[in-house]
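Exercise: predict the fold of this chain.
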Amino acid sequence: MFAHLDLKSLFPTGFVILVDYIVVTSQNIGVSYPDEKTTIVDADLLQHIIENSDGDVNYMQATLRKWHETVDQSYRLSRMSTMASGKNIKFDVAQFKKLIKLRPNSYLSSGWLERIETESLETGYRFIDTLAMPSNDASEG
């Protein structure tokens, strides 16, 4: 599905496995389930989020977590009615207030990752994959 993406430039330090679950559909345009805890998006939207992330997993997660709120703010419901066979039928109609635009994120392209790594290593912090397991020895400190 995402074979055309340049994964080396999007994720130069590798992939992160997210604990959050997401359902990716081939076509989900206009369908939203705000009561669901699992995010449901179509493949095109997910691709758009990834391309705008500049490799920032936090950007991806935040965008997906607040997606229902973003959609809700983009439209308002109006009530309409029509007559059919002598019956008055009332129904809701969505009216756009604004278009949803994902703003491009700046992370890898701005050198932010390198600054975080340098500052972390200079202050004694090590990334978790290089961190030695803490000792559980009760005789220490």
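Check your answer against the key: The chain has one domain: 7-73+99-130.
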